[in-house]
Amino acid sequence: QVQLQESGSGVVKPSETLSLTCTVSGDSISSHYWNWIRQPLGKGLEWIGFFYQSSNPSYNPSLKSRVTISGDTSKNQLSLKLTSVTAADTAIYYCARRKYLLFDSWGQGTLVTVSS
Amino acid sequence: NFVLTQSHSVSESPGKTVTISCTRSSGSIANNYVQWYQHRAGSSPTSLIFEDNKRPSGVPDRFSGSIDTSSNSASLTIFGLTTEDEADYYCQSHDSSAWVFGGGTKVTVL
Questions:
Q1: Do B50 and A101 touch (CB under 8 A)?
Q2: How near does any CA of chain A get to the CA of B13, in Å?
Q3: A-B C-beta contacts closer than 8 Å
Q4: Mind listing the pLDDT tens digit for each residue in B58-92?
Q5: First vs last Cα of chain A: how many Å apart?
Q6: Of A61, A101, A106, the CB nearest to B45
Q7: Which of A10, A12, A57, A82 is deepest in the core (most CB within 10 A)?
Q8: What is residue B1's predicted lDDT score, i.e. its pLDDT?
């Protein structure tokens, strides 16, 4: 049974960089697509991007200029960096595995608040 | 990119049937498969439907997905509503550049 656990900074100041890690157990990040997805409070889900071992990361065009997603296969961890954050980046951030077309396993999510 | 538009909310009584729609703004709904997710308050999203109408193992057959090319939309139907079905439901699809979620539909079981 795959498990995903997000961790990282819960509060980030405006204009600074948000950094999160997703630790995966029960599967290898060398297989499948590993994604970051967020949900601003009271709003819907937004795909941020994915890491795939065999290709370059792919990002949501609306966030592409500020996002970096990478994977550490030795630690089986996925990471997210989002630069120049504003209040609009306040959200619950999820990591999720995608097998073919389906996001079939999700972490519990972590709330990140952008506030001075 | 395209947008997936869902109705904001729907309410129905236990035992009844509800249908949630998801309309694609550009490009054919048939070009890329549609998936559906259930998101209960305080929990992580879970998958309900993939490839328009297939259910992952463990999802009851009370959940059914379909697409309609004439309206360029996808639908999720929930038969025999129970209180456990009260949640937000999201459709999702993709194109060559992005993976897109609908805005979500809140289902309330009265």
A1: yes
A2: 24
A3: 54
A4: 999 999 999 999 999 999 999 999 999 999 999 99
A5: 39
A6: A106
A7: A82
A8: 82
Tokens of B79: 């038969």
CA dihedral B100, A22, A110, B22 (to 10 degrees): 20
C-alpha distance from B70 to closest chain A C-alpha (Å): 24
Residue-wise pLDDT tens digits, A61-107: 999 999 999 999 999 999 999 999 999 999 999 999 999 999 999 99
Residues in chain B with CB shorter than 8 Å from the CB of A44 are: 88, 90, 101-104
Closest CA to B55 of B83, B85, B80, B35: B35
Q: What is the pLDDT of residue A54?
A: 81
Q: Which of B51, B106, B75 is nearest to A43 (CA)?
A: B106
A89: DSSP letter? G
Could you say which DSSP state residue B42 is in?
A: T
Helix (H, G, I), strand (E, B) or coil at B60: coil
Quickly state the pLDDT bin for A9 (edges 50, 70, 90): confident
The dihedral through the CA atoms of B39, B44, B48, B51 has a sign that is positive
Residue pair A36/A24 in contact (Cβ under 8 Å)? The answer is no
Is the CB of B57 inside 8 Å of chain A's CB atoms?
no
The contacts of residue A35 (CB under 8 Å, 6+ apart) are A47, A48, A49, A50, A51, A95, A96, A97, A98, A103, B99
From chain A residues 58-77, the ones with a CB under 8 A of any chain B CB are: 60-61
Is A9 exposed, middle or buried, given 0-12, 13-18 or 19+ CB atoms closer than 10 A? middle
